[in-house]
Each structure stands twice: as C-alpha cells, then as structure tokens.
C-alpha cells in the first residue's frame, strides 16, 4: 500500500469516528472501526479523532468565518480534521488534496468536494489553535463546577483539558524494569515518551501498569497493610485491584460486568498478582465475613476524565447523573454494612461534580450518624486538596494534569 493511501485510510476512519460520535451520539469505545484497518492506521485514526474532539470548539472558530452555512456533518468533519492537521503543521497542499479525495469518495460528500477545496484553500497560512480560548465544558458540567470551585479553577481545568494528557504508570513493588519518566510525589511515574506501551521496558514482565496518578491516589489513601482482608467493590478493569494485591492484601475484587472482569484477570496474570474475582451485582451480593478495608470506586459521570475522553462531553447530556448519584448512595449504604468493627471504607469517583463527591459524602454522613471521615495523612498530599469535610478533591489542573477525582475515607466512630 502506498503511503498516501495509508494516510487517507486513517483519515477516513477518523472522519467515520467523528460522524459516529457527533452524529449518532456514540462514545468512542462503542464505535466499530472498519474491519481490516491495520493496527497503526487504527491507532492513528483514533488519535486524530480524539484530538479533533478535544479541540472542536477552537476548530469551529477557525472554520465559521469561511462557511456561509453549516454543511452536512460528514463534510464538516472532513474540514475539521483538515484544520486540525494544518494546525499540527501538516503541509497545506497535502492536507487539501487528501481532504478533497476523502470528500470525493463519500456518497454523502462527493457533491461538496468543491466546497471542501475552496474552504481549505481559504485557510490562513498559519492555523494556531492554541491561541484561541480553550473549549468550554458543556453547561451541565460547567455550571456546578463554577459554583463549587469558582471561575478561575474552571478556566484552569479547561485549559488542561485542551492539552494532550500525559501517560502515568504505577510501578509494582520491587519493579526492576521501568520506562523512562518523571517520578511524581505520590509514587506514580509520568512517562517521558509513551510510544507503544506494550513494547516499553517492564510491560511484558508485568513490572507496572498504566494508571493515572489521581486514580492511584485512592488506594494510597487506604494505607493497606499486608494480610488485611480487602474488598474492591467496583473493581474492573482493575488498576486499583492490582495496587491492593501489590500491597500484600488478601483481595476480593467484585464487578457486575463479566467482560470487564476478564480484563482484571488479564491484568493480574500479566503482573503476577493475585485476587479472588467475583462477578456479581453489589446491590445483591453478600460476603461471608466482614472486611478490614473496602474500596468503593463507584460508577459515575466520569467527568474527571474529559482530558482522555473528550467524546463524553459531546455525547452525554447530564441526564444520567441523578441515577448515578442514587446508585452510588445505594452501593455506599450496602458496602458500609460489610466492614468488620473498626474497618474503613474508601469511597471515590472519577467525577468533578460535587453531587458525586462532596455532596455524596455529606449525605452518607447524614444517613449514618455513627460514621466519621478519616482525614488523609500522607506527607506528599497538598493540604489545599483536602476539603472542609476531610475528603480529597483532585482537579485536572493539578500537577501538570491528572484525572478529576473525589476520595474520602469513612470509618465507624469510636
Ligand atoms: C469506575 S469503574 C471502576 C474502575 C476500577 N476500580 C479500576 O480502578 O480499574 C466502575 C465499575 O463499577 C462496575 N459496576 C457498576 N454497577 C455495579 C454493581 N451494581 N455492582 C458491581 N459493580 C458495578 C462497572 O462494571 C465498572 O467496572
């Protein structure tokens, strides 16, 4: 296959992804890529689509003055991709030619290939997306955040979300083979050049796993001791299960999804760690005995992961949040009943919304008067991250970028 054809294939798949996300409301993980798309083209197509989704508002600002009326979505997405590639420094003639070729090939776009040509030729010599205001989160996310954290914090979060996120890994205790990177204060490593993860030193030997620095903090806050009986309630795909097992705990990992649990199994096998796996609905399951510690990484809006999953803000509308908040409360109430006397429960969500964090904590304390918050005691944790209630609010603009998370440790009083 000629190089030109190859890149058109990746571009065409990228436009297909954009059409599915922005037209059909599919999450990126639900989009089926064309069969037979080669591995590198597949990766490139996904990367291009994610970058366009991350910069969508900026790209549309560049295009708007050049369009008299909005073209059909399939044409608009070809233009969006081309603008992104120009901003990345690709040569103008190559980008225009390939965009026009793409338009000509599509049944829904061929009649507008002339428009694609004209618009892209009218682009300024230099397309500088970074000079434009960072895209804003949709109202259902933005408004509660402005209210809770203020405009300045929200602007800092949005500026971070417009950037390509770094890749963090959690090293296994005693790991010998590690890729090059920056050691973060909490023990995670931020990779210098992520490249192809499966080829990085120590991947095959299971010396580490990919895990955002913020996600790893929930287990660090648990301060698990070797030999403790620990339950990981919503475990899959298992990054936190690995941490718990690596700390020497006797881990039971539970998840409602069998396919997702299969990934926990794979991760345990690669890293040589052990846990008992249970596929069950936590709202109906009952343990045989109480646990010393429980981690509840509850299902949530995932609004803390917009840096990595910019598709979410283009697909979701916030209508699921109330149901998720109710599910989190039900899971909390159930899991609290599985603690042995003196045990502790760490509740966390990768959400930025106070309803799934700070407010969820206030509500559980109200429902369980015997419960108290255990303040975090970790030397590297900046005190300003600790909330008035004793929870930890992690924001995407911290430490050069991390997932948004809320974490709180609960224990019975006395
Ligand atoms: C945020 S993810 C967990 C991520 C995981 N702790 C990790 O670190 O890799 C939430 C998980 O909750 C699971 N889940 C949702 N409802 C559940 C239920 N009723 N019982 C058990 N697991 C559930 C989902 O299948 C999903 O894997």
From TrEMBL:
Keywords attached to this entry: Methyltransferase, RNA-binding, S-adenosyl-L-methionine, Transferase
Matches recorded under PROSITE patterns: NOL1_NOP2_SUN, SAM_MT_RSMB_NOP
What positions constitute the catalytic site?
350
**Pfam families reported for this sequence:** Methyltr_RsmB-F, NusB
Q: Which InterPro entries match?
A: MeTrfase_RsmB-F_NOP2_cat (IPR049560), MeTrfase_RsmB-F_NOP2_dom (IPR001678), NusB-like_sf (IPR035926), NusB_RsmB_TIM44 (IPR006027), RCMT (IPR023267), RsmB/NOL1/NOP2-like_CS (IPR018314), SAM-dependent_MTases_sf (IPR029063)
Q: Which domain of life is it from?
A: Bacteria
Q: Could you state a single Gene Ontology molecular function term?
A: RNA binding
The segment(s) forming the SAM-dependent MTase RsmB/NOP-type domain are: 129-413
Family membership, please give it: Belongs to the class I-like SAM-binding methyltransferase superfamily. RsmB/NOP family.
| The protein, known as | Methyltransferase domain-containing protein
Lineage at the top is:
Bacteria, Pseudomonadati, Pseudomonadota, Alphaproteobacteria, Rhodobacterales
């Amino acid at each position: 296959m000629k190089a030109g054809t190859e890149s058109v294939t990746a571009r065409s798949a990228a436009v297909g992804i954009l059409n599915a996300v922005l037209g059909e409301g599919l999450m990126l993980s639900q989009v089926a890529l064309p069969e037979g798309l080669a591995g590198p083209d597949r990766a490139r197509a996904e990367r291009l689509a994610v970058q366009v989704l991350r910069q969508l508002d900026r790209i549309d600002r560049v295009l708007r003055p050049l369009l008299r009326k909005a073209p059909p979505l399939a044409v608009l997405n070809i233009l969006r991709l081309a603008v992104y590639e120009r901003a990345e420094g690709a040569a103008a003639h190559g980008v225009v030619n390939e965009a026009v070729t793409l338009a000509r090939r599509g049944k829904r776009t061929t009649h507008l290939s002339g428009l694609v040509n004209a618009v892209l030729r009218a682009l300024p010599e230099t397309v500088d997306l970074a000079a434009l205001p960072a895209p804003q989160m949709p109202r259902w996310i933005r408004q509660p955040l402005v209210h809770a954290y203020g405009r300045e914090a929200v602007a800092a979060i949005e500026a971070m979300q417009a950037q390509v996120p770094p890749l963090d890994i959690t090293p296994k205790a005693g790991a010998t083979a590690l890729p090059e990177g920056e050691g973060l204060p909490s023990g995670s490593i931020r990779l210098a050049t992520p490249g192809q993860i499966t080829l990085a030193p120590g991947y095959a030997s299971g010396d580490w796993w990919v895990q955002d620095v913020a996600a790893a903090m929930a287990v660090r806050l648990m301060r698990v001791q070797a030999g403790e009986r620990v339950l990981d309630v919503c475990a899959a795909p298992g990054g936190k299960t690995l941490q718990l097992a690596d700390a020497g705990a006797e881990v039971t990992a539970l998840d409602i999804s069998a396919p997702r649990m299969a990934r926990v199994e794979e991760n345990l096998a690669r890293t040589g760690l052990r846990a008992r796996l249970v596929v069950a609905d936590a709202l109906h399951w009952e343990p045989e005995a109480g646990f010393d510690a429980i981690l509840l990484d509850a299902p949530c809006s995932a609004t803390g992961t917009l840096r990595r999953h910019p598709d979410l803000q283009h697909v979701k509308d916030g209508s699921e949040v109330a149901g998720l908040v109710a599910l989190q409360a039900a899971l909390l109430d159930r899991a609290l009943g599985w603690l042995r006397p003196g045990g502790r429960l760490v509740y966390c969500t990768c959400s930025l919304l106070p309803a799934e964090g700070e407010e969820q904590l206030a509500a559980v304390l109200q429902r369980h008067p015997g419960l108290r918050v255990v303040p975090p005691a970790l030397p590297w944790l900046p005190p300003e991250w600790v909330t008035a209630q004793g929870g930890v609010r992690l924001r995407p603009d911290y430490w050069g970028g991390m997932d948004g998370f809320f974490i709180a440790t609960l224990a019975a009083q006395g």
